[in-house]
UniProtKB/TrEMBL annotation:
It comes from Roseateles puraquae. Residues 598-619 have a biased composition (Pro residues). This is ORC1/DEAH AAA+ ATPase domain-containing protein. It comes from the Bacteria. Residues 722-768 form a coiled coil. Residues 76-149 form the ORC1/DEAH AAA+ ATPase domain. Residues 573-619 are annotated as: Disordered.
Length: 1037
């Protein structure tokens, strides 16, 4: 048999796991319960507030239960603790002790399991009668339970709970008014009102509340393996998704909205209220009094105790979880506090009760607390990690030993053991199977618990690591055996088929996640993907998650047992004190080693060379610890996220010379880096982002190791000159190489995109200025885009309509920041001498071609902040000329052109001759001055300047072009429309129009003046001169 197969005897099969690894004490055989029992230290908490809490043993608990009852009081032992901590187990342990107690013959013991139905609870209480009367009551009880329809019972439960809620709300209102409770109970009053609304609404009941009601009724009637089935849960009050499409009454919607308040916490409070009222509601439904011939349960128990008094016996009630027995809680509490004496005379047998309840259940039951005098708490919180781990290690060994034997063998051993005395554990056999030396060494490497039980397939490190995932929240441990058995022992042992096939432990077992450095070190070993995954699991759980592979914290046979390669350095040895497996106190290992053969000499262990001393690494920084906890769902703190971005920014700026990529003066910026999850503060929201890790995917070890290395580099004055810096350099380089490629990809793409936007804006400025008539810039011709282009001076006058002046201002802003836009374009296309050079020595023509071929995005958002910063004017111009807004500019310019064109075209004829026109206009001005007919509102010099401008050769050409201007089709391209509108620049047209208006004003004023004077002049010659002057007041002959 191979060593691997030999170890299978120590790994229980599925049948033994199912029968021995039970989490509910009441379902376990007594022999199994004692075989796996782990002694615990209890906390003895007095009923008086402020009294000291002391530690106590299990035997102290037993003595408290069996204290003398000569004073006639009811003996009540209350065991409290969190769910899953082992309260029911303690009750069963007490029962096992009572079975061997010297006074056993005087005791009538009744155990009430928490999974029993209400009918079964009553039957168990009535059993001591053992008479014809008992049998009649039992039969009547059975008939009553069988006759109950679960569906009708659920409906009745809803109605009864609604009535109880009304009374509950009124009681609370009275308590608040009387100031016996504070205003913080106000939400509970409203919750009671809203819950009553929901329970009384038939649509709500039928749609989703009915399921919870039937579950509780069925569990109460028939019992349940899960006590939670008998309790209201917050999720019971969450309406199903499909109900959103169903119209509800306003009161129902208001109730649901209120329950959803406080991030859903009100649902938890509402479930607590319903659970509090469930006990009286179920009593109303099941009507035990009717089934018991109109007698209450406590009256019948009183009869039982009177009979036991006559028989010289005492009644012992062992209640495993009173909180799970809604419907009979109040009668049970009355029973357990009923004293045996009345007015100094004993009238009924003494009663001793063990009451296991969940934390907080007794808080409002002062009478019970007073009778109990104290609470015996099974602690789950506030324990030291070492204490919890040692208890779990011991528990693991005990359960494994029991499962290796099986219940049948344990039961036989238990029956054969002496029944006297209080030692309940000496009979438990230690599993021992003969193994050869190699297999024994492998088994021994996994260690033992204090009782000598082998921990295989666990070791102490695995128990600690696997338990941490289930029992540790932050830095705080809780001791919950039920959770440990379910989540760790059962789930691990059920992987036995994988061990049989040589594939245990599997990859990703129980959230195995190595530190980034260790993960990278493991990958450098060159194992296959499957083997690497299994090694990750073994290193994380069974090897205690070491910092490196330089030193081995675990014995090599552990890895041999799992058919895994030894990943540690060849010379690595387990550290002293840890390689030797823990031996039981009696010196035995629990393993029998087969002899090598007759006469064979005893094996001599080879001399071991001294283990190399691994360098002691400093403790991980807070940042390094945060990186290890970083997941796609758990974001880093703001400070750590900021540090991450700063480290990457500084390192990449030292690494990348953007001048090599024709990005003069560009630097990596902190705002570029996107960190998972998406809600990390300061994550970039636009498409331009450098993803340090992909969303929704595990953080790569390369990223974590690289960031840790960069932190150490930064802390060492950005130098790689420190111990083990070569490893850090490799880790940082692996991260930065990946990010550098991503940075260059997004930056070069963004540079080309932005350069295309700049080129488009500069070309559109050229079109507005009339400096170009081409729809697109010429390839390989950067001169036009970078050329200086002056606009015609914009006339400053209020003669133009306000709308036209607004258009001229918008056009002026569209032409703003031209020099900075040009310089920014050079920044993306130019080759400079060094980082400080200010003059481009060459142009990247390939990028220029790509830029000019590129489609421009509809919205221009600048993401790069290079050496050339854009002014507000330049940014405004970019936005106005962007595809998204340029249409508004075209519409405005079109309206202005339509305003100017008729004014200019109608003032000059098609055959306009500028020289003749200038002479005619000059003569008119001279005549007006000679005749002393000059409008006082007109200045002569500016008017003569207007005549000279309008008769300029360039003006004549502009006038002809204005007359020929026609708007392009609306379907034409943006640039084609700009060309059509700017054949004469808008400011040139505005200046022409203003001059035309000035001439028109002169003509109109002069004509009015001449007409006024003509009526008062008698001289014929003067009249002829004025008539001739009027005839000359026309634009063209």
């Amino acid at each position: 048999m191979s060593d691997h197969n030999a170890l299978l005897a120590y790994w229980p099969g599925r049948e033994r796991i199912d029968e021995c690894l039970r989490t509910e004490a009441e379902t376990a055989d007594e022999a199994l319960l004692l075989a796996v029992h782990e002694p615990v230290t209890l906390l003895r908490r007095p009923e008086q507030s402020g009294a000291a809490v002391t530690e106590a043993s299990e035997m102290d608990l037993l003595r408290a239960l069996m204290r003398p009852a000569d004073d006639g009081s009811a003996v009540l032992v209350a065991i409290t603790g969190a769910s899953g901590v082992g309260k029911s187990h303690m009750v069963r342990w007490l029962k096992a002790q009572l079975e061997r107690h010297p006074r056993r013959q005087e005791l009538v013991i009744v155990t009430i399991p928490k999974t029993a139905s209400l009918r079964r609870v009553v039957e168990l209480i009535l059993e001591p009668l053992a008479s014809a009367e008992y049998e009649a009551l039992r039969q009547d009880l059975a008939r009553a339970a069988e006759a109950m329809n679960p569906v009708l019972a659920a409906e009745l439960l809803a109605t009864t709970l609604a009535e109880e809620l009304e009374l509950y709300g009124k009681r609370l209102e009275e308590e608040v008014r009387a100031r016996r409770v504070g205003p913080e109970f106000g939400p509970r009053i409203r919750l009671a009102q809203h819950l009553r609304t929901l329970l009384r609404d038939p649509d709500v009941r039928d749609a989703w509340l009915q399921a919870a009601l039937r579950r509780i009724v069925s569990a109460s009637l028939g019992g349940t393996a899960d006590p939670a089935d008998r309790q209201f849960q917050p999720k019971d009050l969450e309406p199903p998704v499909e109900s959103a499409a169903t119209p509800m009454k306003s009161a129902v919607n208001e109730a649901l909205a209120f329950l959803a308040n406080a991030n859903g916490r009100y649902r938890g409070t509402a479930a607590e209220i319903l659970q509090e009222l469930l006990d009286p509601a179920l009593r109303t439904i099941f009507r035990f009094t009717d089934a018991l011939h109109q007698r209450s349960l406590d009256e019948i128990v009183d009869d039982i105790r009177q009979q036991l008094l006559r028989d010289g016996k005492e009644l012992v009630l062992l209640i495993e979880d009173l909180a799970a027995l809604s419907g009979i809680q109040e009668p049970l509490l009355k029973i357990v506090i009923a004293e045996s004496d009345h007015q100094g005379v004993r009238v009924r047998a003494p009663i001793r009760t063990v009451l296991a309840v969940t934390d907080g259940f007794l808080a409002g039951r002062k009478t019970v607390l007073t009778r109990a005098r104290e609470q015996w708490e099974v602690p789950s919180e506030g324990l030291a990690e070492s204490t919890i781990v040692q208890r779990l290690v011991s528990l693991t060994g005990r359960y494994l030993n029991a499962a290796r034997w099986g219940v049948a063998h344990l039961r036989e051993a238990f029956k054969a053991s002496p029944q006297e005395g209080t030692d309940l554990y000496g009979w438990v056999p230690r599993f021992d199977k003969t193994l050869d030396a190699a297999a024994a060494d492998r088994l021994d490497a996994f260690g033992h618990n204090r009782a000598g039980h082998s921990l295989f397939p666990f070791n102490e490190a695995a128990v600690r690591s696997l338990a941490a995932a289930a029992l540790k929240a932050g830095d705080a441990w809780t001791f919950r055996p039920r959770t440990f058995i379910n989540e760790v022992l059962r789930k691990t042992l059920l992987e036995r088929p994988l061990f049989e096939d040589g594939h245990f432990p599997p990859p990703n077992f129980h959230q195995a996640r190595l530190t980034a450095e260790l993960d990278q070190e493991l990958q450098f070993r060159g194992y296959g993907a499957e083997e690497t995954g299994r090694l990750r699991t073994a290193l994380f759980h069974w090897a205690g998650h070491p910092r490196s592979l330089a030193a081995a914290p675990v014995a090599r046979p552990v890895f041999d047992a799992f058919d895994l390669p030894w990943p540690f350095s060849a010379a690595a040895r387990p550290p002293a004190g840890e390689s030797a497996p823990r031996r039981p106190a009696d010196g035995g290992s629990g393993i029998t080693v087969a002899p090598a053969g007759p006469g064979a000499p005893a094996p001599v262990a080879p001399a071991q060379p001294p283990a190399p001393i691994a360098p002691v690494a400093p403790p991980p920084s807070a940042y390094a610890q945060a990186l290890e906890k970083w997941t796609p769902e758990a974001r880093m703190t703001n400070d750590h996220a900021r540090l991450t971005r700063r480290l990457l920014t500084d390192a990449l700026n030292e690494r990348i010379d953007f001048d090599d990529y024709r990005l003069h003066g560009q630097k990596v910026e902190m705002t570029w880096f996107w960190l998972p999850p998406a809600n990390t503060v300061s994550n970039p929201t636009q498409d331009f982002a450098v993803r340090v890790a992909e969303p929704g995917e595990p953080i790569p070890p390369r990223v974590v190791a690289g960031l840790k290395a960069l932190e150490r580099w930064n802390n060492n004055n950005r130098s790689w000159n420190y111990a083990q810096a070569e490893n850090d350099y490799a880790s940082a380089n692996a991260l930065l190489e990946h990010l550098e490629a991503q940075v260059l990809a997004v930056v070069l793409e963004e540079a080309e995109r932005e350069a295309a936007a700049l080129a488009s804006a500069l070309h559109r400025q050229n079109l507005l200025l009339g400096a170009s008539t081409k729809q697109q810039p010429e390839p390989n011709n950067l001169k036009d885009l970078l050329a200086q282009a002056d606009d015609h001076p914009q006339p400053e006058t209020d003669r133009l309509p306000a709308k036209v002046r607004t258009v001229l201002e918008a056009r002026r802003k569209s032409l703003g920041g031209r020099e900075l836009l040009q310089e920014r374009l050079r920044h993306y296309l130019g080759c400079y001498q060094g980082n400080r050079g200010g003059k481009p020595l060459a142009i990247d023509t390939e990028r220029l071609k790509a830029v000019l071929r590129r489609d421009v995005a509809s919205r221009w958002i600048r993401c790069l902040n290079g050496k050339v910063a854009l002014s507000q004017d330049a940014q405004d111009a970019l936005e106005r000329l962007s595809p998204q807004q340029v249409g508004d500019l075209i519409a405005a310019v079109t309206a202005a052109v339509e305003h100017f064109q008729p004014v200019i075209a109608q003032s000059f004829g098609e055959d306009h001759q500028r020289v003749a026109w200038r002479e005619a206009m000059t003569q008119t001005i001279d005549d007006a001055r000679e005749l002393s007919i000059w409008p006082t509102s007109i200045e002569e010099a500016p008017l003569r300047a207007v005549v000279m401008r309008l008769s300029d050769e360039g003006t004549e050409f502009a006038i002809r072009r204005v007359r020929k201007m026609e708007p392009s089709e609306a379907s034409a391209s943006v640039n084609a429309r700009l060309i059509a509108l700017s054949s004469v620049p808008l400011t040139r047209m505005a200046a022409l129009a203003v001059d035309v208006l000035s001439m028109n004003e002169f003509f109109e004023a002069l004509e009015r003046l001449v007409h006024a004077q003509t009526r008062s002049v008698d001289d014929e010659q003067a009249l002829q001169q004025r008539t001739a002057l009027i005839d000359s007041l026309v634009w063209e002959d």
